[in-house]
């Protein structure tokens, strides 16, 4: 089966991976041991994310058009039932990244990005600025106060065509900054700290 995404964070020894065998696996990156296996309801997974603030929450998305969030327990195999299912995209979920412990951003083949409030289990804002599939999201920390954490997490959305959008999550109601410097596929942004 094909490994489709890996998510890690420098402040934790955990990492997670998603594969089209229908499993999301959380690893202890130092020992290489499996910490938890999450059987997914769909094998058509495209992305996974690890919440670096809690160390026990993962998310994934794919061709089911949903972003699923799982709270890990101290067990080697998770039940596979999502704790939160976020529906709002009209296309596949290509990427998801946590924005502090109370929020997550997802991107989609429908050209949109949604910033989700995990406590209320609903969108905070849906950004539909892209003209084509949004393929990937990169996040970076911006020192300021915002609704989800003590520092804002800005993010970059990369499209399948020629533009990327930079959004500060403390100012999501404003239009994102657009960079049109590419003339081909943008598939993998880098992460700033």
Which key features would you list for this structure?
Methylamine Dehydrogenase, Chain H, 0% helix, 16 strands, mainly beta, 4-stranded antiparallel β-sheet, 193 residues, disordered C terminus
Give the secondary structure arrangement, pairings included.
Layout: E1 3-8, E2 14-19, E3 23-28, E4 34-39, E5 45-50, E6 57-62, E7 66-71, E8 84-87, E9 93-98, E10 103-108, E11 113-117, E12 122-127, E13 134-142, E14 152-159, E15 164-168, E16 177-179
Description:
- This protein is an all-beta fold and 193 residues long.
- The protein has a domain of 133 residues: YVTN repeat-like/Quinoprotein amine dehydrogenase (Methylamine Dehydrogenase, Chain H, 7 Propeller), CATH 2.130.10.10.
- 0% of the residues lie in helices and 49% in strands.
- The strands form four sheets. The chain has a four-stranded antiparallel beta sheet, with no helix packed on it. Strands 5-6-7-8 form a four-stranded antiparallel beta sheet, with no helix packed on it.
- A hairpin with a 3-residue loop joins strand 6 and strand 7.
- The C terminus is likely disordered.
In terms of DSSP E residues, the strand content is over 45%
**Termini Cα gap:** 32 Å
Quote the average pLDDT. Answer: 76
Helix content: under 10%
Overall form: globular
Rounded radius of gyration (Å)? 16 Å
Low-confidence stretches: 142-153, 161-166, 168-193
Order of helices and strands: EEEEEEEEEEEEEEEE
Q: Largest sheet at a glance?
A: 4 strands, antiparallel
Arrangement of strands in the largest sheet: 1-2-3-4
Task: Give the tally of β-strands.
Answer: 16
CATH A-level architecture of the domain at 3-135: 7 Propeller
Q: Please, what is the CATH homologous superfamily of the domain at 3-135? A: YVTN repeat-like/Quinoprotein amine dehydrogenase
CATH class of the domain at 3-135: Mainly Beta
CATH topology grouping of the domain at 3-135: Methylamine Dehydrogenase, Chain H
**Count, helices:** 0
- Alpha-beta content class: mainly beta
């Amino acid at each position: 089966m094909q490994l489709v995404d890996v998510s890690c964070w420098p402040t934790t020894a955990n990492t997670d991976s998603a594969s089209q065998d229908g499993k999301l696996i959380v690893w202890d990156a130092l020992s290489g041991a499996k910490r938890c296996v999450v059987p997914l309801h769909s094998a058509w997974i495209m992305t996974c994310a690890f919440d670096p603030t809690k160390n026990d929450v993962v998310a994934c998305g794919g061709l089911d058009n949903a972003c699923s969030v799982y709270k890990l327990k101290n067990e080697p195999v998770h039940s596979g039932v999502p704790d939160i299912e976020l529906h709002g995209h009209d296309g596949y979920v290509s990427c998801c990244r946590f924005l502090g412990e109370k929020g997550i951003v997802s991107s989609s083949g429908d050209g949109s990005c949604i910033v989700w409030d995990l406590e209320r289990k609903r969108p905070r804002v849906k950004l539909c600025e892209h003209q084509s599939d949004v393929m990937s999201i990169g996040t970076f920390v911006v020192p300021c106060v915002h609704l989800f954490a003590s520092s804002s997490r800005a993010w970059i959305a990369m499209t399948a065509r020629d533009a990327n959008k930079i959004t500060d999550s403390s100012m999501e109601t404003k239009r994102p900054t657009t960079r049109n410097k590419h003339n081909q596929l943008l598939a993998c942004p880098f992460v700033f700290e």
